[in-house]
Every structure is written in C-alpha cells, then in structure tokens.
Amino acid sequence: MYTHIRAQDASVRLLAKLSPAKEAGRVVVLKRSYHDESYGFRRAREFTMPDYTPEQLANRVTHAPLLRYADALRTHGHRAASIDPLDLLRRERVEALEPSRYGLSDPSAQYNVDGILWTGEGSGKAKQRTLDEITGFLNAVYVGRIAYEYMDLPSKIERLWFAHLLESETTSVMHGAGLDRKRRIHGLLARSEVFDTFLQAKFPNLKRYGLEGAESMLPALDALFGAAARSDTTHIILAMPHRGRLNLLAGLLGYDPAALFHKIKGGAEVEVEDEVVSGDVLSHLVASPTLNYDGKEVKVSLLPNPSHLEAVNPVALGKARAKQYSLLKALEKGGDGVMCIQLHGDASFTGQGVVMETLGLSNLPHYTSGGSVHMVVNRLSSIGYTTPASSARSSMYCSDIAKMVNCPVLHVNGDYPEDVIRAVEIAFKYRNYFRKDIVIDLIVYRRWGHNELDEPAFTQPLMYQKIRSRRSVPGLYEDKLVSDGTLSQDSASSVRTSYKATLNDALAASATYVPPPVKFDGQWSTTVIDGTGVRMVWPGSKEARTFDTGVSSEVLRKVGKGSVEVPDGFEIHPRLQRHVKNRLGSLESGEGIDWATAEAMAFGSLMLGGCDIRIAGQDVGRGTFSHRHAMLVDQKTEGVVVPLNHALVGAVGKLELANSSLSEMAVLGFEYGASWERPDLLPIWEAQFGDFFNGAQVIIDAFIASAETKWLKQSGIVLLLPHGLDGAGPEHSSSRIERMLQLTNDPCTPQPNANVNMHVVFPTTPAQYFHLLRRQMKRNYRKPLVVAAPKGLLRLAAASSKLSEMVPGTRFQPVLPDSHPPTNKIERVALVSGKIFYELAKERAARGLEDRVALIRIEELAPFPFTYLADVLKPYTSSRTIPEWLWVQEEPRNQGAWGHVKDRLGAVLNGLGVQGEVRYIGRREDAVPATGTGKVYQAQQRAVVEGPFEGL
C-alpha cells in the first residue's frame, strides 16, 4: 500500500530524492499500513491553495520590497497588536513594521498588490494600492485586537490559507450579522456577571473561582459549539480547569442552579443506593447537555477534572478518539462528528509537562482525534496565584509551547467579545480543514485574586488599582450595544433582572432539592459479552457478577495458531521462527503455554466475543522484553501485520497496538479517557519497566484510583507494570506495588460485598493472567486492574501453564495453594506473592523440605482474598502443632506488599483461632527498591531465599 504526499516541505523533498517512484509533482512514499491506517485514524485533508500565476510571480519579483513589508506584518504584527485589556504590557517598538525599512517611503506611491496581498478583489486597477492604503490595510488585519502567529508554520499551504482568509474577509465577524446574535452575546455576558455577583452576595465566603474579567469565554465557547454543530459535529468532549466552570455550567450547559446551590450548602451532587460516594468539590462539577444551534444538535460532555489542572487534557483526547472509533465502527463513518476542546489556564499551560506530552500525541496515528481547539484563558499580567508572568515562563507567550507541534496561535483581546468570536470561528475553520490543533490565546484579566478570598493587591497593587477602577467586560459591551441602538437600556436591564429572579427562585428551591437518581445510559447501559447484550450495574451492587472466563480448547487453539499466522509471502524475522514453532508446539501438546501465548489467546477470544482490545505503551507491539510479537514486520518491505486481526475472520473485535511516544502521563491518561467512553473496549497501558508509572502518578491518583468514588465513573483500564528485583538497580526493579495498595480502599477486616476501588494482582502463571484479562470484560461492571506483570517469568518453563487451566469451568484463583497437600509435618507456612515463589520452590526442593515448609501464593492482593485464604490455610491449623507463619518478599520492608498484608493476614489467622504474629522475611528498610551493586544484590537475594528454611 502506498500513500501520496505532496512535495511541499523540506522533509518531503528529501523523500522525493530518496524515492525511485514518482508521479507528476508528487512523491510516492511507502507506508507501514497498520500505523498509517490504524483504527479511528483520520488523515489530515489534502487542502490545496492555488499557486501563484506567472503574472503574480513576476509582480512579486518587481515589488520585492513590498512583499518583504507585507510578510513582516504577517510575521511580526502580533508583537504590536492591541491584545492587552489592561494595556500593561511593556512592548518595544517593532521596527520591522516600518515600511521605510524596506525602502518604501512615499505614502502616495502606487503598487500592484496582485500576488502580494489577498484582498479578494479582481485584477487590473482594483489591484492598485497606494503605500498608505497598503499600510492601513495590513495594520487593520494584523495589528488590531486579534494577533496571528502562523508564519512559522512549515506548511506553505497552511500559511497561504491563513493569508487568504484573513486578508480577503471582513475584519469583523459581526459585519452584517443579525441583531439576535449580538443580543445572545450580551445575554451570556450579562448573566455571567449577575451569576458571579449573586454568589458573592449570598455566599461571601465561597471560593467560586469566578469569571469576572474573562466573561468573553462564554460567548467564545458558544460560538465554537455553534460552529461545530452547523458543521455536523455531533459530540464535543470538553476539558477545563476550575476558573469559570460554574458560569459555564449555569450559563451555557444548562446545569440546574438549584442543584448548584444545594451543593454549595453542603449537599451531595449525586446519590446512589448502596454506594459510598465521596463526591467532589464545587469547581469540579460536570454536565453533558445536548445543545441546539439552528436546528443542529450537538452533545457537549464536560469532563470531571481533578485539581491537578491540566491532567484532564489527555483523558479528553482519549475519550474523543474512542468516541470517533465507536461512530466509525457503528456507522462506517463519523470521525468528523467528534471534536475535542481543551480550556487551559496560562500558568498551567506553560508550566505543566502533561501539556507538552498531550500536544505530542496530537498528530500521531494511534492518538490523533482530528485536531483539538485549545483555548487559554490568559490573565496576562497575573498568572498562577500571584506569580507575575515574568517569573512564570521563559517565553514571550504562554502559548509558545504549542509551537512544538507547529500549532497556529490566535491572540485576542478579551475586552472585545465580537473579536473573540471572530478568532474562535477562524480557529474552528482551520481545525476542520486541516484536522490539526490550534490555540486561541484569550487575553483577559482577573478581577479578584486566585480565589475570591485572596487579596491580590498585596503583591500587585498598581494592576489591581487599574482593574478595580474600570468597567466590567459585560458592562462595556452593553454600553456599546445601547449606544449604537442595538439594545435599549430597559431591555438590557431586564436581562439582568430576570436572571437574578431565576437565581433567587433556585436558591429557595435548593432547600428541598434532591439529586436525581444516577442511571446508566447510552453506551454504558449495556455491554456485549460473547455476542449478548448484558445490562451494566454498579460494581458494589448485589447484581454485580463475573461470567465464566474459560474458553473451549478448540477456540483457544484456533486463536493461538492465528496469533502467529501471516499472509502468504510475508517474511518474518528469522529469529522469530523459533517463537512461532514454540507457540504452535505448546498449543498442540496443550502444555508449556507461556505468558505471551496466554495473552494472545485472551485477546483473540475476547475479540471473537465482540470486544476490542487496545494496548499502548513503548514497544508494545513486540513487547519491551521481546516476548509478545503481536505485531510482525515484513523483513523485505517493512509492511506491518497484526496476525490476530488478519487471521480471526469474522471477529467483531479488533486489536490495536499503539506503540506510543516516550510519555507516561499523557499516554496513560489517553487510555483512561478511552475507558470512560467505551465499556466494550479493553484498554491496556504497559510500562516499559514497572516503575515507569511514576511519571503518570497523577493520572493514577486523581483518576484511576478515585474516579468511581468521586464521580461514579467506571473504568476497565489495565496497567501492566513489569516487575522484578533482578539486579537492574534502583530504578528498574519495582512496580512500587506498595503505592498501588495504599491507593485502594481495601478493608483491613473481612466485609461482605466490599466494593474495592481497584484490583491489584501479582499473578505467577500464564493461566492466571489469561483469566484476569478476560475477567475485565466478562463482568457486568468495570473496575481498574493493576498487574505487577512478572518480567522474570515470561520464558520460565516452571511458570508455564496447561491449556486445561483455561477451559470452561476454570477461573482466576486469588490464592494458589501449595502443590503438595498439607500434612502434620508442616512446620512453616510461607505466604508469598509474585515471582519469588519460583526461587523459593527451587530452594525448598534442593533442601528436600516439601513436607516441612508450605508455600502459599496470594495472587490478588486487593481486594484481599480473606475467604479464599482462610480456606487454604485452614488445614494447616488443624494439626497438633500449629506451624510458624511467614511472609516472604523480595522488596525492602517499607516497600512491597508487607504493609498491606500484615494486618489482613492477622485477621485471617485470628478468624481461624490462631494466635501470634506473622514473621517478616525480606530485605530491610531502604530508600531505593534495589541496590545497583551486583554482589550486594546477590547476597541480599540469597538471604531472602534462604530465610524461610533456616534452622530446618
């Protein structure tokens, strides 16, 4: 398969030199088809602009100084534009904007501007302009209240598109617009001001993070929603921080003010029977209304957002991509029906690394959602609490970070709502044409401090003296409309009076307000299990259940063989022949099933049942440890095939292997967002090494571990964290399982039907892993799963499984008993979790102590398997001599599972009538997971392995 790329840019011209295949004016570039056409991927449109005619080219040569002058305005006009509402920016004079620098000195001199300016007029005399007219025209376009940065874009087509649009259209989007639109803008602004004033009067001690000074955000979003709806966008995924959130909810997204006041007065925003719901703070509330613009409906989903400001960005991107894929899958079209909008604060946009990580995903095949519109609500002279911009960033603009992905930026003065709307509509056109990100830098001010209880004049007295003496943004716009006759003073006042009455009524109603029952709807009402729709329930409900996870041996063999099947003529790497041979051999014998084969059979069987699988991370196609090889590359053509997608004819589900950028936080956030959107998707994030998740800790803390409790959001996300103390040193030796366990609400004592927020497991056999993956999708609810994936067991013969352990009637076992039955000779019972079991079993066998030391594996650490463990341990408590109880782990004492299991093991033993404590065997406390000194590591490990058997 080939794709055609126009030879416009330097990188493509280089390809043209290297490629022997050419067409007229085009180069033919071989593509790795799987990546370039991945599921849901929407290639950017090939949008063309007419090239210069010979006459225009000649005119550009003749008037080269004028051309340089015009390009200087396009390039540097933003530096002199009137974009600061407070006029506090200290800007140097921009010499590049002076025509005299280009030898242009006579204001009355006539110039032919054909091919130099895009005035939208015909040829001949209409193309003649005086220098004075040209200067006025360029300054009106580029040095006004909207400042454009697009000349640094590498694409000639995109630069020409902007120049054509900006220079040929009227500079006012409201030119010729009806009165209704201006009145709509006024209504949004006026109600926003009334809303903030009302909250300040009724709840003076409330931190509401009001919009005062930035009210133009509301008509900006309204215009963006409307433009999207009119272009047949059906879904908008919206992410934003706390500033102005309440105004947006009440003023544009239809949130019931009575519900808002109920929350302010201490009530819950949601109530679910038999569920423990913590709720969240006021400034994190959400809504998902369906809005109507000129008869076109668009659903706007405002996502929950934790206080780690920009963390929601990749979540929104992942949800948007998953929504696009659902539409594509259901309708065989529809990718253009979804748009992601991300609102930012200026300080966080500059300062938070997740912004860069998310931007880095924006154009990648497995991550793009066809372009996001970013709106930075930029309090230009006071960002990030009270930190001035000069101390908060090293760049001229907070938006400069977006230039890393060649993103155009539109800076606009927030004091002028009509200019703001023009910027918004230009941004939407660009995004829709090119399917790329664009930034609107909405420059405003903050009337109060970081919150309404702060005193910003402590640190910025001059600025706040100016702010407090000026008319508000809604007031300024209202004055303009009244003065030009668009609006009478009485009608302007009635908007405010009417909305204040509505708020007063809502405040009275809040006294008896009861949150409506939360129910499943849309794609979360049912899920597909083996081709049958199953009603979804809350994880803690009595109806929650797990269906059989076993699969017939016939299907397992079919899937397993298909996982290494390639098209005729496809040439795999010679070293993978052994991989294929071993897999086929184990499937034939039914024994020796390794980790990767069990995983492939889990994936394929779920795909046959209608589920999609997506596994993301670095090197996931082959597997970081070169074990998976779910994606194969032709050694002659570099064509890519995913055997499970190729071989499983008739499978409804697909496997997407997203080899990601070197990002943890954004990539995990993206997969998590996809899990919010699609209960029929098994989303997996695999860390290259187990401890690499520390770069994504915010996503785990603020979303994965707590979203169900805060927001009643279910997720089936799986984290694969390769783990093992194998001498790799401090950073590559632990999945920090202790951190994951600390994030669970797992009870310390047995509680029937405890709804634990996420499951944490450390499986030791491929069959266990197989059942865990299938269990994620074979439930009528969703729950995050953290797997300490045993890196050291991927190829260990002792850690292989039998096909019979995966057939119907088998399931995941939270506790694996000793392979040797209990006897009266048992003196010690060693409880372990994870790969160290195999070292202990080998040492026990070498010492001949199978009848004196029992080894019990706890495979699921949360929820702690009280009942399962009690059943396994009970036989050891019935002998005349009660054995000694041990907990053995590789990790230091302050790490690993010891802190989590200690009290819980005690509760199990106490329930069995056993007195005494469990003895710890493992490394001593340490500041790192493992030493980087090989000899020391080996000595420590040897001591741990010998510990359970000393003295016997």
Describe this structure in words.
With 952 residues, this protein is of the alpha/beta class. The protein folds into four domains: 54-144, no CATH class; 192-510, 3-Layer(aba) Sandwich (Rossmann fold); 550-805, Rossmann fold (3-Layer(aba) Sandwich); 815-949, Rossmann fold (3-Layer(aba) Sandwich), CATH 3.40.50.11610. Mean pLDDT is 88; it is low at 1-32 and 381-385. Strands 6-12-13-11-10-7-9-8 form an eight-stranded mixed beta sheet. A seven-stranded mixed beta sheet has the order 19-16-20-21-23-22-27, sandwiched between helices. 36% of the residues lie in helices and 14% in strands. Helix 29 (898-911) links the parallel strand 28 and strand 29.
- The whole-number mean of residue pLDDT values reads 88
Provide the low-confidence segments as ranges.
1-32, 381-385
Major β-sheet profile: 8 strands, mixed
Superfamily (CATH H level) name of the largest domain: Thiamin diphosphate (ThDP)-binding fold, Pyr/PP domains
Strand order of the largest sheet: 6-12-13-11-10-7-9-8
**Helical stretch tally:** 30
Quote the beta fraction: 5-15%
How would you classify the helix and strand content by structural class?
Answer: alpha/beta
The CATH topology of the largest domain is Rossmann fold
Gyration radius over CA: 32 Å
Terminal residue distance: 67 Å
Domains (count): 4
User: Do you know the CATH architecture of the largest domain?
Assistant: 3-Layer(aba) Sandwich
Shape designation: globular
User: Would you count the extended β strands for me?
Assistant: 29
Helicity level: 25-40%
CATH class of the largest domain: Alpha Beta
Family: Belongs to the alpha-ketoglutarate dehydrogenase family.
Keywords: Oxidoreductase, Thiamine pyrophosphate
InterPro entries: 2oxoglutarate_DH_E1, DH_E1, KGD_C_sf, ODO-1/KGD_C, THDP-binding, Transketolase-like_Pyr-bd
Organism: Paxillus involutus ATCC 200175
